[in-house]
Each structure stands twice: as structure tokens, then as C-alpha cells.
Design brief:
β5 and β6 form a beta hairpin. The protein contains 15 helices and 7 strands. The strands form 2 sheets. It has a 4-stranded mixed beta sheet with strand order 4-1-6-5. A 3-stranded antiparallel beta sheet has the order 3-2-7. By secondary structure, it is an alpha+beta fold. It binds a DNA duplex through α2, α3, α6, α8 and α9.
Length: 373
DNA sequence: GAGACGTGGCA
DNA sequence: TTGCCAAGTCT
């Protein structure tokens, strides 16, 4: 039988069962061994699923261990300061996930008496948990027969039926969700969810899929056509990332402490700490020391000396950033002309305790070397 | 539907 | 070097 994406009734129950059994046999034989596998604690599954959103297994593993050591239960997480949660998340990216995880722990303590939900709608009502994560948590954590549809599953299924529809389109997602639901077995749905993600992560990879080892090879349309690379179909090219430019100032007082500011609670790198900075006109060239002292004056700071410390280039999801960094010896004044939620003069050790992004760690690493004066 | 939201790895 | 992406969600 040749599957066809136009036949939305595919697969029939018998075909679905055969595919699930083949996949489970593959999983039993060569599924990956991962820290959250075989885990009975729903909280731990939850944490793993949040960390794994848009993030590779290899990156997540060390964070997962450190996070659970520090916050071993939903109660421990709910009792924690958000800043400490963000500190364990620093470098992992998408910091909104950490804020949502913490917020959800508080909601669970307040509204469920600390008991984790057992129903899909309850999980999906929590911040940071959408349809796929909710399904994954209950499938893996409670062996409930919910279908997941993440990047791996989209790739595997779109290849299996040679789906011409872009996978991120409404029509494409509808077909894939339906297919994912039909394939999800009533027996061992949790293992099945992990098995299909393993398949996508290790055999049915974006480039160079290892079809000969695939338990679904015989029925895979893309493989039959020799067009594995054509799927999943994506929409048109994305726009080029814009390029932004900034100044960052590492202002050091006579005790060697650095002036650091708290970013707003919303938006990019929310709630993380950074040195004072300023957006630059994209057309300007690297600022002169004269421009830097003018900027400091505008903030209300007088600097004794300043010197160029280096350039940091960093790429975010949606733009490139170049940061011209300067070291400044603080002479006097207060940061009255600068918009910051909060700021302070802190030692290197104290700053280590604050949550910072990878970008701002790179910038601040330029500040503890031979300062001016 | 499209864009915001991080980072490191890889072709 | 540049682009794409890896267990998505929210606005």
C-alpha cells in the first residue's frame, strides 16, 4: 500500500499498529540512553521537555543534571527565587522557558496543592506548555496515549508520506497531527513518543538519513522516490537578519567593582544583568573615545579614563549584533540618565552570582583584565 | 500567519 | 562565512 497525503484517513488502524510495533522494536533494540529515560518522576520529565524545546540533547544534559540537583521537586522550584532559576538557565537560551517553568511551579503549588496535573488540558493551560509538550509530558511521564508533533516527528512523517505541503503551514500541520494521532498506539505510547523522536534524531536526520537502518524504510515514500532531502518542505526563504550595533561600557570604580544593570522583565534576555550600553546608528563607524565620554556624561557618569576593550560579535535568532566595548575608570556621578530597572556596583564574585546571557558574559570578560588607571 | 525568542554545532 | 537548525510557545 502506498501512503498518500491526500488520503487523510491514512493510516488505517492495522497499518498504524504494524508501524508502531516496528518502531517500538527498534527502540527496544537501539533506543538512546538519556538521563530522563526510565524516569518515574513527572516533574523531571516536565523539566526535560522544557529544556529540550528547540535545544539539542547534548546541550541539555549538563543543564538537566544541575537544575534537578538544585531544584529536585516542584516544591523546591516554587520556593526558589526567579533569579536563581535564571542563573541555572544561563547559556541555555530562550530564558522565557525558565521564567515560565518557575511561574508554572508557583501556579501548581497555589492551585493544585503542589500536585502535578494528570490531564492534557491542565498541562496545556500552564505557561510555556503547548500541545506538543503537554502531550510529551503525559505520554512519557504517565504512559498516556497522546500524540506529539515536534521537529523530529514532522520530519519523519513528512518523509514517510512525501508531504508536499509545507510542514509549518496550517494545512501541513493538520495532516501531520492527524497522522501522528493515528499512529500513536494504546500500548506503550510513552515509549512510542520517545522512539519516534529517537528515529528523527539519529536515523531520519535532516542531512544524510540512514535509511537502511530505519524500521519504516519499506513504506517510506520519500525513500522510495530517493527524495529524502526534499522533505520536510519548508516555506520560502527567510529574510536576512538585520545587523545592530551597540556600545557597552565596563565602568569600574576604585575598588574594582563594576556597574551592572538589570534588564527589563519582558523581551530579549529578560531579567538578566548587563553592563550599561547604548544602541548605535547602524550607519555609524566604531565610536571614538570622545563619543564614549559624551555618552557617559549623558548618563550622569564622569569617567577618568576610558579605553577600547574589544569588539564582540553575537548572533541572536533574529538579528546580528556587534558590540564595541570600552573600559572606563569611574570618577563620580550617578546613573540618573540611564533607563535601568535596577543597578549596582558589584565585585566579580558578586556578578558571578547574577544571571547573565552568553553575550554579556563575553562582554564582561573584557572588563576584569588590566583596567584603565 | 508571521515574528520574537538564545545558543552552539555543523555543512 | 553564512545559513539552518534542535524534543515549540506566545503574541
Amino acid at each position: 500500500m502506498i501512503p498518500n497525503s491526500c488520503q487523510s484517513q491514512w493510516p488505517d488502524p492495522q497499518t498504524a499498529q504494524q508501524l508502531a510495533e516496528a518502531l517500538l522494536a527498534y527502540y527496544d533494540r537501539q533506543g538512546r540512553s538519556l538521563p530522563w529515560r526510565g524516569e518515574g518522576d513527572l516533574y523531571r520529565i516536565w523539566v526535560s521537555e522544557i529544556m529540550l524545546q528547540q535545544t539539542g540533547v547534548k546541550t541539555v544534559i549538563p543543564y538537566y543534571g544541575r537544575f534537578l540537583e538544585r531544584f529536585p521537586s516542584v516544591s523546591a522550584l516554587a520556593s526558589a527565587d526567579l533569579a536563581d532559576v535564571l542563573h541555572l538557565w544561563q547559556g541555555l537560551g530562550y530564558y522565557r522557558r525558565a521564567r515560565n517553568l518557575h511561574a508554572a511551579a508557583l501556579l501548581i503549588r497555589h492551585e493544585q496543592g503542589g500536585q502535578l496535573p494528570q490531564r492534557l488540558e491542565q498541562w496545556q493551560a500552564l505557561p510555556g506548555i503547548g500541545p506538543s509538550t503537554a502531550a510529551a509530558i503525559l505520554a512519557i511521564g504517565c504512559n498516556q496515549p497522546h500524540a506529539i508533533l515536534d521537529g523530529n516527528v514532522k520530519r519523519v512523517l513528512s518523509r514517510y508520506i512525501a508531504l508536499r505541503e509545507p510542514v509549518e503551514s496550517g494545512a501541513g500541520k493538520k495532516i501531520l497531527w492527524q497522522m501522528a494521532r493515528r499512529l500513536t498506539p494504546s500500548q506503550r505510547p510513552g515509549d512510542y513518543a520517545q522512539a519516534i523522536m529517537d528515529l528523527g534524531a539519529t536515523l531520519c536526520t535532516r542531512t544524510k538519513p540512514d535509511c537502511p537502518r530505519c524500521p519504516w524504510q519499506s513504506g517510506c515514500r520519500a525513500c522510495q522516490l530517493g527524495e529524502q532531502a526534499q522533505f520536510p518542505v519548508k516555506k520560502g526563504r527567510k529574510k536576512a537578519k538585520p545587523h545592530q550595533f551597540q556600545i557597552a561600557t565596563l565602568i569600574q570604580d576604585k575598588e574594582g567593582r563594576l556597574l551592572v544593570c538589570l534588564r527589563p522583565e519582558t523581551g530579549l534576555l529578560a531579567g538578566l544583568w548587563e553592563p550599561p550600553g547604548q544602541q548605535l546608528d547602524p550607519t555609524t563607524k566604531p565610536p571614538s573615545l570622545d563619543q564614549v565620554s559624551k555618552q557617559l556624561k549623558a548618563w550622569g557618569i564622569s569617567g577618568e579614563k576610558s579605553e577600547f576593550a574589544g569588539v564582540i560579535n553575537h548572533t541572536f535568532t533574529h538579528f546580528h549584533l556587534t558590540v564595541y566595548t570600552y573600559r572606563v575608570a569611574y570618577q563620580g556621578g550617578c546613573l540618573t540618565g540611564y533607563k535601568a530597572q535596577e543597578y549596582g556596583w558589584l565585585t566579580e564574585d558578586e556578578i558571578q552570582q547574577l544571571p547573565r546571557s552568553t553575550l554579556h558574559k563575553k562582554i564582561m570578560a573584557l572588563g576584569w583584565e588590566s583596567g584603565p588607571g
